[in-house]
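2024-03-11 09:14:02 DEBUG pipeline.ingest accepted 1 chain
2024-03-11 09:14:02 DEBUG pipeline.ingest length=288
2024-03-11 09:14:03 DEBUG pipeline.predict start
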Amino acid sequence: MPTEVISRSADEVSGLDALELGPAKQKGRLGRRIWHGTWPKLLAVAIVVAIWQAAVLAEWKPVYVLPAPLDVFTVLKDLVTTADFWDGVRLTMTRAITGFFLAVLIGTVIGAAVSRFAPLRAAIGSLITGLQTMPSIMWFPLAILLFQLGESAIMFVVVLGAAPSVANGLISGIDYVPRTWLRVGKVMGMKGLAQYRHLILPASLPSFVSGLKQGWAFSWRSLMAGELLVIVPGTVSVGVRMQNARDLSDSALVISYIIVVLIIGILIDQFFNAADNALRKRWGLTGS
């Protein structure tokens, strides 16, 4: 097909997309919008801390097992000022980003192939869902046998934990592309890769982003389990430091690392939420 025909078809589809998109939202005051999104989270944190403090005051557990919030926050404040702490966070985030990138690459290829070829879907469609529901920790004995105590063992489980979610997200997105859009694309001369590039993949992007978000959640949990179970010689990650704190019965330090892992997870989740909200607003799927 001539290049100018494909280009014209893509422009026409973009014009049709503009009819589907929601109106541009007028930006309100920055401070008000930030506060509107922040105060529920602050309230949730305050409730958790209050329940925690109440449990300490009720002497539910000895203070050396369940320290007070103030004691933990003091340890956490001292912890984040050390270079060793940031070295551990850097190693953990490097593993997380590398594993997630590989999972996205593999999951996208598998998802596109399964959605494109019906025999392949019949063969492995249910297997992908089964892998997605399987607890990642079940893979670690096999990973250790295959790769010993090394980085590859951790990456193996992280990829297996995230790739099925990414693949299913893309498959679901492609499945729910309106048939009318596909017919319009064919009328405009879109076939093969041009159809995927200009029509199917953009239309499936909201579901794909949801799959990416879920894939990240699975990969992050798999990584934390891996760092606790697979201690690679010569590396000191967040999971290894948490395990060392547990061996020393340092409850305040253990809880501090739990808070660090929780904060990192929340920050990444906010990034995916922002991307998802931007797509929904772009497609006019939000009320305001």
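2024-03-11 09:14:41 DEBUG pipeline.report The two ends are 41 Å apart (CA to CA).
2024-03-11 09:14:41 DEBUG pipeline.predict end
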